[in-house]
Structure formats: structure tokens, C-alpha cells
Design brief:
It is a single chain. The chain is mainly alpha-helical. It has one domain. The longest helix is centred in the N-terminal third of the chain and has 34 residues. The radius of gyration is 17 Å and the shape is globular.
Length: 194
């Protein structure tokens, strides 16, 4: 019973630590749709196809990073009274701001790589690309954060029992991605429910 509780605790902690990576993409889409006049690829093409497409704007990119970091700061405020030194796994204050920035930025860079890949494959914006659609931001967030904070990623997602946090992120991401896209479609933010 203790082992099961330990695994559940590690999974919950992994989700807590990964939250700044979940927020940027949906917020980037929300802001980009309304205020995203300047596209990240400036309307340019490469080998006859748009580099990223109309769905990627500078306003959305900047706002997405900002919202991820702001959520992280809110998490720090919640954690501070209970764990003022480690913030429930984020570590010392200045490094945890860097971690949140890397998670947020990496998520958006991963999404950009996904859009770039879809354009190269001849897929239109919004066209379904299973696995790539669900996990491009996860890969980006993990890679960028690992580049600057490898000890954080290893200790919280891969070391020993913490591998369950990584497995849980992969499972819950699929569920969250599907739910958020359905909500976005019903709100008129997305043109497709996937």
C-alpha cells in the first residue's frame, strides 16, 4: 500500500511540476487568434510551403510563455507557506523561474517544430496528426528544460520511482489534449475538435 501511495505522490508531483508547459499552447492560440496579426514566419515559404502557417503568431508565442511563467509564479506562491526552500520540487527561487521559462518556451518551440513538420509533410493547418499533435510540446518542454536544468528533469521524471511521473505525463497529456481541443472547438477558438 505504501508503494502505491508513493507512486501516486510522484505522479501528482510530476504533474504539478509540468503545469507551466501545459498552459502556453492554449493561451497562444487564444491570443494569436485575436491579436496575432504578425505571423512567426512572416508569411514566408520554404520549398513552396509555409514555414509554420497562419496559426503561429508572435503575440501568441510571447503571451504563451508569459502565461506559463505566471502560472509557475502562482504555484510558487501556493507552495511557499508549506515548502519555502524547495517549492514542492521546483528548487531555489531563481532557478525555478528559469525552469518555468524553459518549460513554457520549450512547449511552444515543440509546437512550432510540430507545425514545421506538418507543413513539410504537406499537411494543412488543423489537419489531424496523431502523436505529433499530442506530444510535440511535451518533447519540446522536456528537451529545452533538460538542456538548462538536467538535474531537475532527471530527479523529478526519470530517477528511480520518478519514472512514473514521466509515464503519467504521457498518459494525462493525451486526455488533457483531447479535452482542451474539444472545449476550444466549442468556444470557437479552434476550427477542429482535435
Amino acid at each position: 500500500m505504501t508503494e502505491i501511495m508513493d507512486v501516486l505522490t510522484v505522479m501528482a508531483l510530476g504533474l504539478w511540476l509540468f503545469l507551466p508547459a501545459y498552459v502556453p499552447n492554449s493561451n497562444a492560440a487564444l491570443i494569436g487568434k485575436r491579436w496575432g496579426k504578425v505571423k512567426m514566419d512572416f508569411g514566408k515559404t520554404w520549398k513552396g510551403k509555409r514555414i509554420f502557417g497562419d496559426g503561429k503568431s508572435w503575440a501568441g508565442f510571447i503571451w504563451g510563455i508569459l502565461t506559463g511563467v505566471l502560472l509557475g509564479v502562482l504555484q510558487l506562491a501556493i507552495a511557499y507557506p508549506f515548502d519555502p526552500e524547495n517549492y514542492f520540487g521546483f528548487g531555489p527561487f531563481w532557478s525555478n523561474i528559469g525552469i518555468m521559462f524553459c518549460l513554457s518556451t520549450g512547449a511552444l518551440l515543440g509546437d512550432l517544430c510540430g507545425a514545421f513538420t506538418k507543413r513539410r509533410l504537406g499537411m494543412e493547418r488543423g489537419q489531424k496528426a496523431p502523436i505529433l499533435d499530442q506530444y510535440d510540446f511535451v518533447v519540446g518542454a522536456f528537451l529545452l528544460t533538460t538542456l538548462f536544468y538536467p538535474d531537475f528533469i532527471y530527479a523529478n521524471f526519470f530517477e528511480g520511482i520518478h519514472i512514473w511521473a514521466f509515464v503519467f505525463i504521457l498518459i494525462i497529456t493525451f486526455v488533457i489534449h483531447r479535452g482542451v481541443n474539444i472545449i476550444g472547438y466549442k468556444l470557437g477558438v479552434k476550427n477542429e475538435p482535435w
